[in-house]
Amino acid sequence: MLDAAAADRAITRGRIVTLLGVAALAGLYVMAVLYTPTERFQGLVQKIFYVHPPAAYAMQLAFVMTGIASALYLWLRDARLDAFAEASAEVGMWMGAIVVITGPIWGRPVWGTWWEWEPRLTFTVIELLVFAGYFALRSAMREPAERAKFAAVVGVTALVLVPFNHLTVYLFASQHPTPVVVGTKKPELPPEMLRAFLTGFATFTVLYLGFAMQRYGIGVRRLLEETADAA
Amino acid sequence: MPPDNGQYMVSAYVVVAVVVLLYTASLWRRGRR
Fold first, then answer.
1. CATH code, domain with A151
2. Is there a contact between A136 and A93 (Cβ–Cβ < 8 Å)?
3. ipTM for this prediction
């Protein structure tokens, strides 16, 4: 099931995709700084929106993929699914770091505060803490199959948090902005802003894929080493 | 006139670039044979 050559291939391909993602991020910066208009009320700080929501989406995408891979692991018991679930969760944590750092940088000039314990922000912290627990659990267990099974249960359970976090801005009196582009109404953005915003989402999708592929390959290698050590 | 807060945008962009490059470097190192 686990294949060293396939792990090497995943790492190599992941590196190429990651480099494309890094180049796309540089392109996104140029696009955002030079080709998008400055918002009248928020000023230049509004341009944080070209990275913050895309990073939040990549975080949610990563955690959803962990949940799906975890559910499939519990069904098929294929170690590759466990390696992918772990890889995706790790990428989700890094994307989460971007989200919780860039959010307050926007909040300070616009809300007048770095942090507010309002539903969306609080729930994002809870989501990241649950995944920190996922890694704590993994590091506390040595036997690969046992570790994969317990981690998969956490991964599937945490899947519930993703749609709930998305809905916090609708369910509660949240201070956090609601989606502008993916909403019930037609997007009311100048085309330059919309283009940069969508480029941000594409960029973070590419970065997610590159990171997850590399981390998956590294995870498979580790599992192979563990199996070799145990034998 | 829009408010003068470009320093926040620059800080956020620098943070994103640093996090992305740090993780890229970390994966590169861990993926070496």
1. 1.20.120
2. no
3. 0.96
